[in-house]
Design brief:
Acyl_CoA_acyltransferase; Aminopeptidase; 7 strands
Length: 157
Amino acid sequence: MAKLRRRDVPRCAELERELFPTDDPWPEGAFVAALDRGDFYVGAYDRAEQLIGYAGLAFVARGPKAEAEVHTIAVDPRAQGRGVGRALLRRLLARADEERAQVFLEVRTDNEPAIGLYRRHDFEVVGMRKRYYQPSGADAYTMRRPPRTAEQEGEAV
């Protein structure tokens, strides 16, 4: 896992189209804009250094009330089930913990594997957004993970 490389942006957009065809997949320009803003994006790579997954986090507030939001976590279907998504999420959360930020995300209400992953990492459902994903009209849960305390920092995630 490493910082997402600009040369991986076309592959990110390709995976978006494959993974999220009915939910307005991000084009290359959206990834470029996120990288240009300085958002925290990481990539997971196979042995041949090909991108097999990516994840992004943005800070929306800093300081004592730091807040971050997970923009995306995506894993090539051929690499799913091997812990890549979990590793990507843990890297995002480690970065959020550096700022002691609470973390928010949206997830499709029918995406049980992702919801389970998030729950195992201390996220809880705090709301629902009706017809959040477009054009499919799928609903999304808003989930939140509280900021890590000093005592929790030594615990394994």
